[in-house]
Specification:
The chain is an alpha/beta fold. It starts with a strand and ends with a helix. It is extended, with a radius of gyration of 30 Å. The chain is built from 19 helices and 16 strands.
């Protein structure tokens, strides 16, 4: 579909001239001779851009702009006003009402096409941003679950979101800490500003410092220009520090200053950079144990621990498994072009019996895999691939594995110990063979 431009002018010669120029440049056109007709054309023809003369009969161009502004149409419809040389003040007033730009008569052809192109590019960018924001909101803003364990956290987090206090999200891996961080940002007054995510364990110490604070030109080899860090990029918004428990100690000290003073220096810089940010941090580590081990600063913990939430593991909210499963079925079914899939009664019972050591992330992966592998429209237990559960819950002697109910890191440690013991028993305590 070609771009349609509405020309609003009571001078027929000007309208004909503009139609010829715009059609020669590949645009479709329509026209109106007065204000009421322009409003009617906008309603009926849905143009992509309006060229609006200020001096119109019946209803002036300025009045047309004001009506469009009251109806919130200027947010989606770029309007370029046309005015005579002696009416610049009126054009300025039109800009205040929401016009994108103005042109003075007689119109310069090249300037006209440049202004139109830039106005359409800006509108296209606005629509792309709105689309992407909608996709992100749809992907991250849905916290599924009605159990008391999760509802109490949601209700409290919604109240806390209205403040600028730091939030610390604790819990096992896969319990939805990033989803909660994004939701808190969306519930907050900062939602129109950026949410910047920093993974504190994915980068080396040097790269993480540069990621957070940025650098000055010449700070190190290859630093040929100044670069802003994530903290500076998030000014006015929120910074989500994922896996904060794995942040190196030297960077913890620098982060502490940001939390205290809301300022820092770029790498290689001497000037303080002030930022207005809210910090949300998350970890699956036991930070108090890390403090005792000298791996985490106690003063940083107290700065982060203003408002803390421990997200419950999925095994403690079994009533949410069914709605979560349905949510993932609908999402992945749409993405994988297999809508309408359902879980059999036996498959749902299998999901509810499972202990979910990987929590919601594991449930998400299981459902995505089942959608791909299921030969029928109704997913059966075989497609869930959960048949290894019994082996997972018992050691070789058939005794239950009590560590499944321990905190995450303790559970991992005990599980590693069980695997090593199992291998040693299998090879009659021959360490060389067991290691292979």
């Amino acid at each position: 579909m070609n771009t349609k431009i509405l020309i609003v002018d009571d001078n027929e010669d000007i309208v004909m001239m503009l139609e010829d120029r715009l059609r020669a440049s590949g645009y479709d056109t329509c026209s109106a001779a007065d204000g009421p007709q322009a409003l009617e054309r906008i309603e009926q023809d849905s143009p992509h851009l309006v060229l609006l003369d200020i001096d119109l009969p019946v209803l002036s161009g300025l009045e047309v702009l004001k009506r469009l502004a009251r109806q919130k149409q200027l947010e989606e419809l770029p309007v370029v006003v046309m005015t005579a040389h002696g009416s610049i003040q009126v054009a300025v007033e039109a800009m205040k009402e929401g016009a994108y730009d103005f042109l003075t008569k007689p119109l310069d052809k090249d300037h006209l096409l440049i202004v139109i192109k830039k106005a359409l590019e800006r509108d296209s960018l606005r629509r792309q941003v709105a689309c992407l924001r909608s996709e992100v909101d749809g992907r991250y803003a849905s916290i599924v679950g009605s159990s008391s364990a999760i509802r109490s956290v949601i209700d409290s987090a919604q109240r806390a979101a209205k403040s600028d206090a730091s939030v610390l999200l604790l819990g096992e891996s896969g319990t939805g800490k990033e989803l909660f961080a994004r939701s808190i940002h969306q519930w907050s007054p900062r939602r129109a500003m950026p949410l910047v995510v920093v993974n504190c364990v994915a980068l080396t110490d040097t790269l993480l410092e540069n990621e957070l604070f940025g650098h000055e030109r010449g700070a190190f080899t290859g630093a040929d220009r100044q670069q802003k860090g994530k903290l500076e990029t998030a000014d006015g918004g929120t910074v989500f520090l994922d896996e904060i428990g794995d942040m190196p100690l030297p960077l913890q000290a620098k982060l502490l200053r940001v939390l205290q003073d809301r300022e820092f220096q770029r790498v290689g810089g001497t000037r303080n950079v002030s930022v207005n940010i809210r910090i949300i941090a998350a970890t699956n580590r036991d930070l108090k144990q890390a403090i005792r081990a000298g791996q985490f600063r106690e003063d940083l913990f107290f700065r982060l621990n203003v408002i803390a939430y421990t997200l419950p593991p999925l095994r403690e909210r079994p009533g949410d498994i069914a709605p979560l499963a349905q949510f993932f079925l609908e999402r992945y079914g749409h993405e994988m072009k297999r809508p309408g899939l359902s879980l059999s009664k036996a498959a749902l019972e299998a999901l509810q019996r499972y202990s979910w050591p990987g929590n919601i992330r594991e449930l998400s992966n299981v459902l995505a895999r089942a959608i791909i592998l299921s030969p029928t429209e109704q997913i059966e237990p075989d497609s869930l691939a959960l048949t290894f559960e019994d082996a997972r819950r018992h050691d070789p002697s058939g005794e239950p594995l009590p560590y499944l109910d321990l905190p995450y890191h303790a559970s991992i440690k005990e599980h590693s110990r069980t695997i090593i013991l199992r291998a040693l028993q299998q090879f009659e305590w021959n360490q060389t063979k067991a290691a292979v």
